Amino acid sequence: MVKVLFVCTGNTCRSPMAETLLREKISNQHLDDKIIVKSAGLAVSVGSVATSGARKAMLSKGLSLDHHVATQLTLPILEEADLILTMTKQHKLGILQAVPSIEGKVYSLAEYADSQIDIADPFGADEMTYQECAQQISQLIERLWDKICTFAEEK
């Protein structure tokens, strides 16, 4: 069983969308018993829910973030994860500065998908920006899907 963790800043936009998109792919491929996905944030306001923009972006894909509650990233969550995918290179560097022992399982989402882009924070932006962010995350997940499946098979 592989445990994938997505990390962003507040766990109200990017990482919950990534979690939801990957969870849907896992479910569609009937791999729920092989891959678990979660999300957390570096600076969470406890009890926060997904932003309306993130909820609308997922709803447009037939998915829901209605029950999402932001989770603060903690050392146990990091240690439990087999693969940690951050939304930006800066998130990755921040995690590795705090916990250097987990190097080798932390990547930016783009890096793991063999791309160079960071996923810009759509917080406070218009609905179109959230849609574009969700699309960007979805495309990167498509690009790294085979890697995750291979990792799950090897685990």
TrEMBL record:
KW Hydrolase (keyword) present: yes
CDD domains: LMWPAP (cd16344)
Xref: InterPro entries: LMW_PTPase, Ptyr_pPase, Ptyr_pPase_sf, Tyr_phospatase_low_mol_wt
Gene3D superfamilies: 3.40.50.2300
Domain Phosphotyrosine protein phosphatase I positions: 2-147
Signal peptide per UniProt: none
The name this protein goes by in its record: Low molecular weight protein arginine phosphatase
One Pfam family, short name: LMWPc
PANTHER family assigned to the protein according to its UniProt record, in alphabetical order: LOW MOLECULAR WEIGHT PROTEIN TYROSINE PHOSPHATASE, LOW MOLECULAR WEIGHT PROTEIN-TYROSINE-PHOSPHATASE ETP-RELATED
Keywords of this entry: Hydrolase, Protein phosphatase
The UniProt record lists the keyword Zinc-finger: no
Native organism: Selenobaculum gibii
Family: Belongs to the low molecular weight phosphotyrosine protein phosphatase family.
Residues at the catalytic site: C8, R14, D121
Transmembrane spans: none
An example Gene Ontology molecular-function term: protein tyrosine phosphatase activity
